[in-house]
Amino acid sequence: MTRAGPVIAFIGAGSVVFTRNLLTDIFLFEDLHGATITLHDIDAGRLDTAGMMARRTSTQLGAGATVVECPERRAAVGGADFVINAVQIGMHEATLIDFAIPRRYGLKQTIGDSMGIGGIFRGLRTIPFMLELLGDIAAVAPDALLINYTNPMSMLMWAGYEAFPDVRAVGLCHSIPNTAREIASYLGVDHEQLVYECAGINHIAWMTKLEVQGADVYPQLRAAMDDPQVYARDKVRFELLRRLGYFVTESSEHNAEYTPYWLKDDALIKRYDIPLDEYIRRSEQNLIEYAATRKGLLAGEPLRLEPSVELGGPIIHSLTTGTTRLVYGNVRNDDLIGNLPAGCCVEVPMVAGAAGLSPLRAGVLPPQLAATCLPHVAVQELVVAAALQGSRDHVYHAALLDRHAPSVLSPDALVAMVDDLIDAHGAALPEGIRR
């Protein structure tokens, strides 16, 4: 008997808005109708909500999907063709810790989910889970592709392919397609007209080519930057463009904490409109959206379903049907970017199609761009080593080498702050790191 469609497992399915968006993208492809969707979340209420939402999405889009809620993770993974990871270990409470303790030491953050002190500790909390999930895939779905959306992207992917090199995995992020759309809006052109090439590390990838109808539009982007209304929309990234010559992916609020320039000074924070503690507000809003979604589902209200810029749906479609398309993903640097370290996690173009996912060599980044990435690569390597080896010393090393924190704190303060964060997160951290 031929199966009607792929089996797609959602791990962390209780992130219902994100899960709804991905399912919408998937179900908009008629070739993927009849898919089996297995859902897993450790929160029973969120799992129930995800099940209702998945069935409602399938019904509204006529997708004919089979939806199965799985309280046990391995049961959700078993036999899957694709496994989507969207967990947040520790949820809102852990996020509050990641912000509150550094704030006591005078360290300001904006997002704290990918790099910096917040990214380091989110990585340490999440790598053990990532390894467990990869172990499940190796055992019960060895042919599946893991699609990771969880941050910190580079750390999780790096730990994963170090520990489970035979499991197929790609990390996906919306920062590149979102940045392309933002650049198009600054230029006043339709985003479909913009042709670009991009490479680097997740959240610090660089638009190395920007063209419209075959013409370089970087001069127009620099001219647009001089318009006060345009500049006000993306001040930090425009300053990086001014100084380094290229536009970087991810938002100004992210890049403000990836660099040592802005968050150390209240006058600069005000001048560049940097939203401190932004992720806490986003996390609180996510809780509100979840409650509203569940209430609407229980009331039988239709869902608002719109396509997103996420790449998971197109990749699943390409690998299922053999349709060829160009995407971007985070994978091991096997001679993909020549002046970033071998083995680190890089974000590069990839061809998705009948042969699977094939990364393309991006060549060599301009030296100032590689140099901007390199300090973060070093910290990511230390966090991965800390988690895999259970090394508390490497946690200290990572914090001491972060680009932002040492611009504000002394070595003694950094070590004391790390100790407080380790004590606060406790059993969520790998053995050997916690007291």
Number of strands: 13
Percent range of helical residues: 40-55%
Provide the structure class.
alpha/beta
Quickly count the helices. Answer: 17
CATH architecture level-2 label of the domain at 7-91 and 107-171? 3-Layer(aba) Sandwich
Low-confidence stretches: none
Q: CATH class of the domain at 7-91 and 107-171, please?
A: Alpha Beta
Q: Can you tell me the CATH superfamily of the domain at 7-91 and 107-171? A: NAD(P)-binding Rossmann-like Domain
- Strands side by side in the biggest sheet: 3-2-1-4-5-6
**Alpha carbon gap, first and last residue:** 54 Å
Q: SSE order in H/E notation? A: EHEHEHEHHEHEHEEEHHHEHHHHEEEHHH
How would you characterize the largest beta sheet? 6 strands, parallel
Q: Any idea of the CATH topology of the domain at 7-91 and 107-171?
A: Rossmann fold
Summed up:
By secondary structure, the chain is α/β, with parallel strands linked by helices.
Task: Describe the model.
The termini are far apart. This protein has 17 helices and 13 strands. It has helices at residues 16-27, 44-60, 73-77, 91-104, 116-140, 153-163, 175-187, 218-225, 228-231, 235-244, 252-257, 266-271, 278-298, 312-321, 367-389, 392-401, 411-425, and strands spanning 7-11, 36-40, 66-69, 82-85, 145-148, 168-171, 194-201, 204-212, 215-216, 247-248, 325-332, 345-353, 356-359. With 435 residues, it is an alpha/beta fold. The longest helix is centred in the first third of the chain and has 25 residues, at 116-140. It has a domain at 7-91 and 107-171: Rossmann fold (3-Layer(aba) Sandwich). Helix 2 crosses helix 13 (278-298) and helix 4 (91-104) packs antiparallel against helix 17 (411-425). A six-stranded parallel sheet has the order 3-2-1-4-5-6, with helices on both faces. Strands 7, 8, 9 and 10 form a four-stranded antiparallel sheet that branches. It has a three-stranded antiparallel sheet with strand order 11-12-13, covered by helices on one side.
